[in-house]
Structure formats: structure tokens, C-alpha cells
From TrEMBL:
Similarity annotation: Belongs to the ABC-2 integral membrane protein family.
Annotated GO CC locations: ATP-binding cassette (ABC) transporter complex
UniProt superkingdom: Bacteria
Record localization: Cell membrane; Membrane
InterPro entries cross-referenced by the UniProt entry: ABC2_TM, ABC2_TM_bact-type, ABC_2_transport, Nod_factor_ABC_transporter
Bilayer-crossing regions: 45-65, 77-94, 136-154, 160-185, 192-210, 252-271
Keywords: Antibiotic resistance, Cell membrane, Membrane, Transmembrane, Transmembrane helix, Transport
Descriptive protein name: Transport permease protein
Single Gene Ontology MF annotation: ABC-type transporter activity
BP term (GO), one: response to antibiotic
Length: 281
């Protein structure tokens, strides 16, 4: 007499996971987003430190150095600085994204997710969802802090909302760089290298000073920095001084603030997907 046993379920493959309905991918991504948010609730030191660091930079440059810096074209330095600081905060989020992805990959957590019957894009969706939620909170706190120290929005509510959307659009693009780097480079040295490189990229822009106060070649580099494009566009939309009296950015800032993040996303989103598929293969 033979005993019938049920067939074992077929193992999940990348192809079978990618065939999961898109609605399931969004649902899986939302569950993983909640996982990341719960980590921050239970261990709030890291996000709080990141927020305090941004506030410290704002106060330091605004009040310690602001009196010695003149804005080309006129205007108060605080109102010039604030949109740049909002933009720089979007850049600083890149290293947090990379560190989270790198840590999960190194500990085998990402491999465990890959073995589960979830959509192949769920891990990246979860990471991006959590990072965008964190960025919205950080930006809201900085906007409130700016208003407390004298920064003002002098345009209509529609322009101000568009400025906020441009900041979050830049953050969305940069997080794909972080996801890619976190999947490809998982050693602690790589994270430190990215942390070091972020500073020159952020400072080689118009966040703190206008490019026309720099040497000619350096100012040209700063004008083509994606951070400068978003900073200038948000200054225009908030009705703040741009610190620019001539050059490329005054007329093209809005288009560049849309185009640079789009280009970054088109390059690094597919690279992130490929790196995830090739992980530990």
C-alpha cells in the first residue's frame, strides 16, 4: 500500500517572483516600508541625529557665517540659505539609504527576502517608501525651523508646493543611487567613502554661496551640479533671492531641476534592479 504525499511547492525563482501582480508588488513594498519605519520607531537615535545635524548646519552657516557673506543681487542671507539647506538635506539622505541596503545585504536579510514569494521589486519599493517618508518628515521640520528663524515664503501656495515636490523629486532620484551602491559595495569602507564624497558634491554647488563668487572654472562646475539646479528652482518658487545675476541657471533652473533627477533615475533605477537580480548569484 502506497501513501500519497502532496507535492512540495515549487521554489520561487526570480522569473516567478517578477510575475506576481503589480498590486501585490505594491502591497509587499508597503509591508517592507512598515518594517523600516518600525525600526526607526524602536531605534530613533539615527533619524533624530540626522535631523539635528541638518539643523546644526543651518544654524551654523546662518548665524555664524551669514553676516560675512553677501548675496549677489541683494537679499538676506538666511532667505538665500534655507532653500539650499533643504536641497542639501535631500543629498545627505543618500548615505542612509546606502547604509541600510548594505547592512541588509551583508546580514543576509536581502537574500531571505529574495527567497520569499514576493515581487522582485518589493525590497526596493519598501526601502524607497521608508526613505521618502523620512525625507518628508525631515523637510517638514526644517521648513518649520526656517520659519521660526525668519525665513519667509513670498509667493503663492501653489509655487511653494511645487518647490517642495522638486525637493522630494531630487530625493527620490538620489535614493536609487544609494540603493545601487548599497547592493554593489557592502564593505564599511565603501560607506565611509560615500560619506566623504557627499561633502564635496554638496559644497561644490550654490547651496552656501553663489557660483559667480567662485573662480570661473569652479563656478561653471557648480552651475552644472544637480544640487544647484534644485536649490535655484526652489529659491525662485519660494520667492527667495537666488544669488544669481547672470549665467545658465536663472532661466533654466526649473527645467534642470526636473531633468537632472529624471536622468539620475533613468540610469540608476535599472542598475539597482540589475544589482538586486545578481545579488549573491
Amino acid at each position: 500500500m502506497t501513501t500519497l504525499t502532496p507535492d512540495a511547492p515549487a521554489p520561487q525563482t526570480p522569473a516567478s517572483r517578477s510575475s506576481v501582480p503589480r498590486s501585490s508588488a505594491l502591497r509587499n513594498g508597503w509591508i517592507l516600508t512598515q518594517r523600516e519605519l518600525l525600526h526607526w520607531v524602536r531605534q530613533p537615535a539615527l533619524p533624530i541625529f540626522g535631523l539635528l545635524f541638518s539643523i546644526m548646519l543651518l544654524l551654523m552657516f546662518g548665524f555664524l557665517f551669514g553676516g560675512a557673506i553677501e548675496v549677489p543681487g541683494g537679499g538676506d542671507y538666511i532667505t538665500f540659505l534655507l532653500p539650499g539647506m533643504f536641497t542639501l538635506t535631500m543629498l545627505f539622505g543618500l548615505e542612509g539609504t546606502m547604509l541600510a541596503m548594505s547592512t541588509d545585504a551583508a546580514k543576509g536579510i536581502t537574500d531571505r527576502f529574495r527567497s520569499m514569494p514576493i515581487h522582485s521589486s518589493a525590497v526596493a519599493l519598501g526601502r524607497s517608501g521608508a526613505d521618502m517618508a523620512s525625507s518628508i518628515l525631515n523637510l517638514a521640520v526644517l521648513l518649520g525651523g526656517g520659519l521660526l528663524i525668519g525665513w519667509r515664503i513670498t509667493t503663492d501656495i501653489g509655487s511653494a508646493l511645487l518647490a517642495v515636490l522638486l525637493l522630494l523629486w531630487l530625493r527620490f532620484a538620489l535614493l536609487w543611487i544609494g540603493i545601487f551602491l548599497g547592493l554593489v559595495f557592502r564593505g564599511p569602507g565603501a560607506t565611509v567613502a560615500v560619506q566623504v564624497l557627499i561633502w564635496p558634491i554638496g559644497f561644490l554647488s550654490n547651496v552656501f554661496v553663489a557660483p559667480e563668487t567662485m573662480p570661473g572654472w569652479l563656478g561653471a562646475v557648480a552651475e552644472w551640479n544637480p544640487i544647484s539646479a534644485t536649490a535655484t528652482a526652489t529659491r525662485q518658487l519660494f520667492g527667495n533671492p537666488t544669488g544669481i545675476t547672470s549665467g545658465l541657471l536663472p532661466d533654466a533652473a526649473l527645467g534642470m531641476a526636473v531633468g537632472w533627477p529624471l536622468l539620475i533615475t533613468l540610469v540608476f533605477l535599472p542598475l539597482s534592479a540589475r544589482a538586486y537580480r545578481r545579488l549573491r548569484r
